[in-house]
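For reference, the entry.
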Amino acid sequence: MLTIDIYSEICYNNFVWGNSIPIAENDERICEMQMNEQFTILKSGAEVRSRIRELAAEISADYAGITAESPLLLLCTLSGAVFFSADLVRELTVPCEINFLKVHSYQGIRPAGSPIFDLGENIDVRGRHVLIVEDIVDTGQTMHTVMQNFTDKGAADIRICTMLDKPSRRYPQLKDLVIPDYTGFEIEDLFVIGWGLDYNQKYRLLPDIMVYHPEAENGKEQ
């Protein structure tokens, strides 16, 4: 049976050597993996790319009046949103800049506590139109911390673009405070990997968004 590590290797090799053929459709081992109880595809790479183009068109329309003298500032959250941000920014048709921030809040598959900035806390956003680009919004705690930080630092306005949203996981006190302006896909309370999303720093290179079932690996209920 194909393991997720072999799948990652295939994805990496196709990326490095420039294979333009969708590997999920052309490698028997990929097809075999799709039946693995531990990993199931939630959104294919093709679906993600199509949705990113739609989001970019919507964002570009909303910021159509922005100028090169004061471009849209995208703040990409490391490390999960790197792939999503890179694909998104290439599709935008308005002047923009990109910077990066890192906020630590997760260990494994469960929250580790209050969000703490590791990078980007003091990015100058005074008078800027800011778009925070996130891989996934769930409890809303990290996003609320980020938004509050840059609001306090004088951003003209702040919007959120997230690849995935889990509204069912939102903390009750944040339901009306953390509402993404642009959402790729709204999903149920699932643990997902791929397209930048990780499990303990693994599986980010997977070209699809996949559901990870750790209980299947352990052979017991989670």
Notes: The radius of gyration is 18 Å. The helical segments are 4-16, 23-26, 28-33, 45-62, 82-91, 141-152, 214-218. Residues 45-188 form a domain with the Rossmann fold fold (CATH 3.40.50.2020).
